[in-house]
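Section 5.1 Outputs to date
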Amino acid sequence: MRTTEQSSNYQHLDTMTTMQLLQAMNTEDMTVPAAVGRAIPQIERVVEGVVERMKRGGRVFYIGAGTSGRLGVVDASEIPPTYGVRDKFIGLIAGGDGAVRNSVEGAEDDSAQGWLDIEQFNPTEDDTLIGIAASGVTPYVVGAIKQARTRGLLTACITNNENSTLAAESELPIEAVVGPEFVTGSTRMKAATAQKLILNMISTATMIRLGHVRGNRMVDMELTNSKLVDRGARMIMEETGIDDYSLARQLLLQHGKVRKAVEAYKAEKR
């Protein structure tokens, strides 16, 4: 039996008090970072492969079904506002965008549709496909990985079981085995938490390696709200030594990005 399908370590959940339920869930959640930590060497190989290909113009496709697919879509959607990079991380979910909000029955069982969804983006050998599936057997994801590998894309996966079909079909498998779920088989819990952490690591490390962070600052973030404009202005003040907030804000709005504003200011002062 797959680890993600094994019986919970806790029995008679329906008889527990609210406090007992919350404490037990928290205890289980504490095991997730350790499982992710054991997978760091695998994650490193994926990041290095992604960075190498992105330098050549490649992209990353996340593909999954259900919770796994939603996590990929969320991670991809957060890259443009955070790092000012568009169309480099693309999230695909079985059943299409409507499945982000509502379950599409049977979509994950179609082994051909995953690659068909990717083909709409004209994939190349510089692209990377990362399949996300807690079980490691989801046909929609496995089928896409198989096709991508035959076409020269770098293939990787994130799964929560050892020795899965998905891992066997992927060049760079990431296995974060978090053990049985608190509610038996409910992989939206620990398995999904591990997936979210790993996706954060892959995309964030990639963006840092590609120069979209200076020091520890998001110098290419998009100015999508007043909070980010304020943050950007203060970053400019810190980077340049400007003590006039209004001037820093003006520079930011003029140039649109922290990086560009700082570079323009420093060039003017030379």
